[in-house]
Amino acid sequence: MKYALTLLTLAGTPAVAQTLDLACTGTAPDWSLTLNGETVEFDYRRTSDLTLMLDTPAVGEAAPRALTLIGRGDSAILILEKTDACRFGTDAGGYDAMVLTQRGETPVLLTGCCLS
């Protein structure tokens, strides 16, 4: 019983390598995402409050990183790649960003930029 409780406790704890604060945006279509520590606000067709549950670097590499975001009824994966000039927008520096999510039963891939 004690072992089962430990597993339940660990399952509910986010596995975040380091805390990030990011402001992300994209156009065509318009979307935004704000990350403050483990708290995320994602706006695409509606606003969703999400939690950063997992921060996964590429195998053997420091970048790109995949952030798993989970919320009540919504989820997303934010893929970040450090850059000197964002290829999806006009921001200098920061990160190229790709968000994999869905609206209803339709999968969506959004592109944009994030600044820290």
Total of DSSP H or I helical runs spanning 4+ residues: 1
**Tally of individual domains:** 1
Strand content: over 45%
Mean pLDDT: 84
Strand segment count:
8
- Ends distance: 43 Å
Q: Order of strands side by side in the largest beta sheet?
A: 1-2-3-4-5-6-7-8
Give an overview in words.
With 116 residues, the protein is mostly beta strands. It has one domain (22-115). It is built from one helix and eight strands, in the order H-E-E-E-E-E-E-E-E. It has one helix spanning 2-11; strands spanning 20-26, 31-37, 39-43, 47-57, 65-71, 75-82, 95-103, 106-115. The protein has an eight-stranded antiparallel beta barrel. The protein is globular. The N and C termini lie far apart (43 Å).
Q: Which key phrases capture this entry?
A:
116 residues, disordered N terminus
Concise structural overview:
9% of the residues lie in helices and 55% in strands. It is mainly β and 116 residues long.
Sequence-ordered SSE layout with sheet pairings:
Elements: H1 2-11, E1 20-26, E2 31-37, E3 39-43, E4 47-57, E5 65-71, E6 75-82, E7 95-103, E8 106-115
Antiparallel strand pairs: 1-2, 1-8, 2-3, 3-4, 4-5, 5-6, 6-7, 7-8
Signal peptide: 1-17
Keywords: Signal
Protein name: Lysozyme inhibitor
